[in-house]
Amino acid sequence: MLSEVGAVHRSMRAAFLETAKFAEPSSALRETEEDVARAMVRGGAVLAEASGETIGSARFAWEPDAIVLARVAVIPAHQGRRVGRSLVGFLEELGRRSGRLVVRTSARSQQPDNRGWWQALGYEIVGYEDVYGVPRLKTLLRKSLPALPESP
Q1: What is this structure's pTM?
Q2: Could you tell me which of 113, 1, 116 has the C-alpha nearest to residue 47?
Q3: I want to staple 137 with a disulfide (CB 3.0 to 4.6 A). Which of 45, 58, 90, 131 is the partner?
Q4: Sheet strands (E) in the chain
Q5: Residue 50: which region, alpha, beta or left (left: phi > 0; alpha: psi -120 to 50)?
Q6: Do residues 91 and 58 touch, judged by C-beta distance below 8 A?
């Protein structure tokens, strides 16, 4: 598990580095491997790999009625290649097979393309949250999943 934590941490940092230009960079840049390990205990994480290299990751947490996605990250050299979409699709199916028909996540409002990306995947904006004293910095998103067909 330690090597996976390191891979999740490295890919997350590489993907979120672009937020360093904002007045309030993503808290992902302050997370340590220990923080990542603690977060993974609430659910887990998945990795995307190509040619033996980690190119993306996503964390998730379980709630009684939902799977909550966090830190969906694709390293810059592999962005725009449907890697993030694949990570999210995998986690949606994991949630559905675990009986959770709701997926929740959030996106940084300073990056409007993030919101559009999530909306293109079928997520709807359900609210905003103030963070670091910045109004509406976080966009809250939700998606309902279809139930699995009943077995005959």
Answers
A1: 0.92
A2: 1
A3: 131
A4: 43-50, 53-63, 66-74, 102-108, 124-131, 134-144
A5: beta
A6: yes
Q: Strands 124-131, 66-74: parallel, antiparallel or unpaired by DSSP?
A: unpaired
Q: Report the C-alpha gap between 133 and 65 in whole angstroms.
A: 30
DSSP state of 19: G
For the chain, give the percent of residues with pLDDT over 70.
Answer: 97
Residue in 5, 8, 2, 17 with CA at minimum distance from that of residue 77: 17
Q: Report pLDDT for 111.
A: 79
- At 59, the amino acid letter reads R
Question: Mind listing the pLDDT tens digit for each residue in 56-99?
Answer: 999 999 999 999 999 999 999 999 999 999 999 999 999 999 99
What is the C-alpha separation between 60 and 104, in angstroms, rounded?
10
CB-side neighbour CA atoms (13 Å) of 73: 28
Question: How would you list the strands of the sheet with 66-74, edge to edge?
Answer: 43-50, 53-63, 66-74, 102-108, 134-144, 124-131
